[in-house]
């Protein structure tokens, strides 16, 4: 594709490389370093004049540093006369505080969804998927699980949880039936994993034959890996919006769905002025 450059920040270079490979492009040359006072310095190593530039940077790891690095890269490309600069943010930072829908942007934003990739994984990897129940670990995810359940033509359930304080659940009540069925927990992210591990126990005690968890963003901080290893999951499936290689070394239950093809196709469609809404319901080949 002419007049397009892909750059990757330092948060997830492997995903940036996968996206560039799918588009048949070389990753742009960029050097990131820190001054002695820990300020981030970014040098774009090639001309971007008149180019359509895409910068891949995920909100993970040292989130504040990576966010600052992204902003500096955007500024560097604009100063260097790029015709357009688009940030590709697989895991959006600070989204947990629900600011993303409160007027952060006065520019176009396309929100991509993992649902098509999740549906594909379920059909290809869970033999008994036609006898499963899709479960939300909280009431807030009800819309997400009903959408997936409808498209699979299976039942759904949700777990009502009462919190004493953030990241600490007091009591869980299952609403729905999982007896003698495979239960598939679906959530947008898992951090310390207390909720999903507690939910898995609840599902097994309610008669589920197997329990899977499918999570868009696997943050896995603090005791998360220990909790997953001790829990009754067949598998905990996450997308590669966040690097998972180190976590997978310590937990054999973690499996990864590659979403680079979705991001690559979104870039191609944006570059060519095509609609990206096709990606809301399809996984590109």
UniProtKB/TrEMBL annotation:
Molecular function via GO: ATP binding; kinase activity; magnesium ion binding; ribose phosphate diphosphokinase activity
Keywords per UniProt: ATP-binding, Kinase, Magnesium, Metal-binding, Nucleotide biosynthesis, Nucleotide-binding, Transferase
Enzyme Commission number: 2.7.6.1
Keyword ATP-binding: yes
GO cellular component, one term: ribose phosphate diphosphokinase complex
UniProt catalytic activity: D-ribose 5-phosphate + ATP = 5-phospho-alpha-D-ribose 1-diphosphate + AMP + H(+)
Domain spans labelled Ribose-phosphate pyrophosphokinase N-terminal: 4-103
GO biological process assignments: 5-phosphoribose 1-diphosphate biosynthetic process; purine nucleotide biosynthetic process
Enzyme class, broadest EC rank: transferase
SUPFAM superfamilies the record matches: PRTase-like
SMART domains in the record: Pribosyltran_N (SM01400)
Gene3D superfamilies cross-referenced by the UniProt entry: 3.40.50.2020
Name of the featured protein: ribose-phosphate diphosphokinase
Originating organism: Oncorhynchus kisutch
């Amino acid at each position: 594709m002419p007049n397009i450059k892909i750059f990757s920040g330092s948060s997830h270079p492997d995903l940036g490389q996968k996206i560039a490979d799918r588009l048949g492009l070389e990753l742009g040359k960029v050097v990131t370093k820190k001054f002695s006072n820990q300020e981030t310095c970014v040098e774009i190593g090639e001309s971007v004049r008149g180019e359509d530039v895409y910068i891949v940077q995920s909100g993970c790891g040292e989130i504040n540093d990576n966010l600052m690095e992204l902003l500096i890269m955007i500024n560097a490309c604009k100063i260097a006369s790029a015709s357009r600069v688009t940030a590709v943010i697989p895991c959006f930072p600070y989204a947990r505080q629900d600011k993303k829908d409160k007027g952060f942007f006065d520019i176009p934003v396309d929100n991509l969804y993992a649902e098509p990739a999740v549906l594909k994984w379920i059909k290809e990897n869970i033999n008994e998927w036609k006898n499963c129940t899709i479960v939300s670990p909280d009431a807030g995810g009800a819309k997400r699980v009903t959408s997936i359940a409808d498209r699979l033509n299976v039942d759904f359930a949700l777990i009502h949880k009462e919190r004493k304080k953030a990241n600490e659940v007091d009591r869980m009540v299952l609403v729905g039936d999982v007896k003698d069925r495979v239960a598939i927990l679906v959530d947008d992210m898992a951090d310390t994993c207390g909720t999903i591990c507690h939910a898995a126990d609840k599902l097994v005690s309610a008669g589920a034959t197997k329990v899977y968890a499918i999570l868009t963003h696997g943050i896995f901080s603090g005791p998360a890996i220990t909790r997953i290893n001790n829990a009754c999951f067949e598998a905990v499936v996450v997308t590669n919006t966040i690097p998972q290689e180190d976590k997978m070394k310590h937990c054999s239950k973690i499996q990864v769905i590659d979403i680079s093809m979705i991001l690559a196709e979104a870039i191609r469609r944006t570059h060519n002025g095509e609609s990206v809404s096709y990606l809301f319901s399809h996984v590109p080949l």
